[in-house]
Write a structure and sequence with these properties.
Blueprint (H helix, E strand, L loop, with lengths): L3 E10 L6 E10 L5 E3 L4 E6 L1 E3 L6 E5 L1 H15 L3 H8 L8 E3 L2 E5 L18 E8 L6 E11 L5 E9 L3 H13 L21 E11 L1 H12 L11 H4 L2 E2 L2 H11 L8 E10 L2 E2 L31 H20 L18 H6 L2 H6 L8 E3 L3 E2 L9 E8 L6 E13 L2 E9 H6 L5 H14 L16 E8 L3 H12 L8 H20 L9
Helix pairs in contact: 3-6, 7-11, 11-13
Length: about 525
Amino acid sequence: MTTRYRISGSFLLRSPLHVGDGASDKWKLDDGGRRSGSPDGIEVRTVCVGKKIDGTGTAPYIPGSSLKGALRGWCQQFHSDRAVVDSLFGTQKAGGKAIFEAATLTTAAIPPTSTWQWWDSERSTCVSANVTLDPRTRTAQDRKLRHAEYVPEGSVFTVTFFLLDPTEEELDLLLYLLNNCNESSPLALRFGAGAPDGWGSVKWTLQKIEKCGAAEVAEWISKAQTSAVAGQPIVSARQGAWSKTDSIAINKRALSRFQPVAAPETVKLEITLQLQGGFLVNDPSQRRKGGEGAILHSPLRLRSQRAYLPASSFRGAFRSQARCIWRTLQQVHPNDAVTDRPLREAKYAADQEDLFGFYQLFGAPGWASPLAISDFIPVDTKTGDLATKQEFIAIDRFTGAGAESRKFNAFREVGQELRGSVTVNLEALRSAKCGPWVFALLLFTLRDLVEGDITFGWGASKGYGAAVANVSAMPGHSLANTVADFVKLLPRSVGPAVALEASLKEWAAEFSTVVRRHADTCKNWD
């Protein structure tokens, strides 16, 4: 008789989660955070939703295929015994021993305030709005506003996994993979989209492990014959014959069986941004029209009500500046041919090596960026809404007076200090055959960041978002130490440090070579 194991547990979201259903809906996103279906509404990439457990309404879930894909992908990369991996997860010729059921939402994260972006209590989800920056104007590109539905942090999903006749090693491997979700290293398992910007992080909690085999079924039948249920049909051994095992001991055995995977070589840059004036990353869901309570621009806020800089916003501004540096260097070679070459998916190693160098660093379809960026949050621990309102009025260019019906406002925090990090995965760069030129581009961009040449959020032309930075690198190995030494000299000249100057010249020379080699990339390569 087949021996089954049933593993029950839960995933607590430590960051937003977007597991898309492959489709998008037309929603009307109203002022004040309301949303409703509308054929002429805004297109929103939706998450997988199904019926709630009690049968009323809908709720998001994580498909079993998403769980299996993430677990298997991690296992194939870091677990050397391919036979065990194939036996557990299956191949094209034979199914695996593991059965993955969908993770269902059991505890919805109730918003502490009304500041969550388009919170829908029926679906227990929010909607994020993101823009694409125009690399020339540094403002939002026309028709490049994107919306995605997501499940907010704090939500809890419960899930059940089944194993059919597993070996002890196969059972332990699955438990080891689930426990890996709790790691804080770059190798921690994440689910869904947006992993480089911190999305999809979960905390796994094992609830129980149960076993159902010949002995358990025989014991169950014996008990049934001597109890009140005697004479009634045996519905299913799957329902009644499960016996609890020592979950703690089995889980401990699983963790001791496998050696922890060594964290990849990384260079971690700790960055502190000192905002020089008003700061605002706009939350369009907080817009209010009309009357004295009108709000046109309001900041994205943490649970503490403080304004912050999302990882995606920092990435966009930082990437835009790096692109500007790259394109400036390309002008050194004006006679190089420029042809139209579309950006294709870089799913395999050969494609990643052939990627335009800029995309090797900042990501492309099928290739996640080796730069992991955190949210930038306030350094101080104050709580509550510290945003103040500033009134604006547009000037009529003909009369020089205030333009009629052109008064608006913005709520912003002033003089804020934010802290976050950028972590460079060196092993990912090596797999794409990237050289030290990557650090030349990074250092040039960091220099501009330190000197205050990069602005963040809304209203750069109005004095908002200006910032100077302090950057420190966490040393570890020789390359990280070299980068750390360079960072210490920012924004000062590296001239006095002869050895460093020689290294930087070498990196810069290679950077120039890579730029020239990729000068045949399409004109509109963004």
